Amino acid sequence: WKEHRLEFPKLAILCAYYLSIPASSASSEREFSKAGQTINERRTSLKPET
């Protein structure tokens, strides 16, 4: 993308944002933590009626 950034400036910005590797794992750890808070015993048990 570096070679074509002048030809496709908006696409180059999007690619830099979405295809870059984060320097730390803090944001992914935060998302996994949120998911753990969402899924609990009550939510994981489905009854045949549902």
UniProtKB/TrEMBL annotation:
Protein species of origin: Rhizophagus irregularis (strain DAOM 181602 / DAOM 197198 / MUCL 43194) (Arbuscular mycorrhizal fungus)
InterPro entries on file: HATC_C_dom, RNaseH-like_sf
Signal peptide per UniProt: none
SUPFAM superfamilies from the UniProt entry: Ribonuclease H-like
Phylogenetic lineage: Eukaryota, Fungi, Fungi incertae sedis, Mucoromycota, Glomeromycotina
Biased composition, class Basic and acidic residues, residue ranges: 40-50
Positions of region (Disordered): 24-50
The protein, known as: HAT C-terminal dimerisation domain-containing protein
Coiled coil residues, start to end: none
GO molecular function annotation: protein dimerization activity
One Pfam family per UniProt: Dimer_Tnp_hAT
Superkingdom of origin: Eukaryota
Domain HAT C-terminal dimerisation: 1-50
